[in-house]
Amino acid sequence: MYSVVVGVGNPLLGDDAIGLEVAERLKGEVNAEVKKAIAGGLELAEMIAEYELAVIIDAFNGDGVKEIDVDEYEESVANHDIRFPSAYHILSRYIKMPKVRIVGIGVKNVEIKEELSKETRKLIPAAIEKVKKILEEENGFIGKS
Question: CA 117, CA 15: separation in Å to the nearest integer?
Fold first, then answer.
C-alpha cells in the first residue's frame, strides 16, 4: 500500500508543532512517505490525494494521544480556506482520495515560541507508537522494505 504520514503544525506556536516533530522522528522508521505541513484545509487534502492511506498527526486541545474521526478533525494551524473534512469530501467526488486516519496529540498551551513544552514532549513516544500501530494494521508491516 502506498502510504503517507503527514505531521501538521506551526513551528512558531510552541506545542502546536508536535505533529511536525513526530513526523521528523518517523522519517526512515516507517514504510511510508513522511511529510510536514504548515497548512490545513484544501492544501492538506491535495497533499494526500495521490496515496492509498494517509496518517495525519496534529495537535488538538485536550489530553493524551488518540485517534480522531475525519469529520471531527479541526486542523490546529491557521487556515484561510475550507476545513480539511470539507476539502476531503469535496475532492473525493472528483478523484480517488486515500483512507485517512488522524492521530491527535493533546496540548494545553499554544503560544508564540519555537519549542515544545516538557509535557508535550512526553507524548512523542506514544504518538510514534500510535502511528506505527496504524501503519501495521493497514499495511501489515511498519519497517522499511
Answer: 6
Q: What angle do CA 42, 46, 47 make, to 5 degrees?
A: 115
Within a domain: 144? no
> Which residue in the block uniquely carries the three cell numbers 499554544?
110
Tally of structural domains, the chain: 1
The pLDDT value recorded for residue 114 is 85
CATH code at 35?
3.40.50.1450
Query: Is residue 112 within 8 Å of residue 9, measured between CB atoms?
Result: no
Q: For the chain, how big is the Rg over CA atoms in Å?
A: 14
Please state, as a whole number, how many other Cβ atoms lie within 10 Å of the Cβ of residue 99.
Answer: 14
Q: Tell me the pTM.
A: 0.91
Q: Which domain holds residue 63?
A: 3-139
pLDDT digits (tens, 9 = 90+) for 72-131: 998 766 565 788 999 999 999 999 999 999 999 999 877 888 899 999 999 999 999 999
Q: Which residues contact 129 (CB under 8 A, 6 or more apart)?
A: none
Give the residue with greater pLDDT, 141 vs 42: 42
